[in-house]
Amino acid sequence: MTRFLAAFALAATLLVAPSAARAHDAYDDSESNPLRLAAYGLHPIGFVLEWVAMRPLHFLVSNPQLEPVFGHVPHESPFGGYEPYEPGTDE
Fold this sequence. Notes:
56% of the residues lie in helices and 0% in strands. It has a domain at 31-71. The longest helix is centred in the middle third of the chain and has 28 residues, at 34-61. The chain is built from three helices and no strands. By secondary structure, it is mostly helical.
């Protein structure tokens, strides 16, 4: 009887275990590239550097009164001559 319960528990575990192993997205061979593995460690550093240093710096130099001092010019619209669609505006 104990062997039967042990075999049943093992069979149930083997049937349930594969469904518990899930990923957030599909795996392909690009995730095993050594540069991709290094990027997993470097990306958080770049993310923090962008939000802690670069965005506040851009906010400072893009101030209209300070633009001539720093030589900052506004960027072109990525939409060319067209205005981007804004939901909720009736035109």
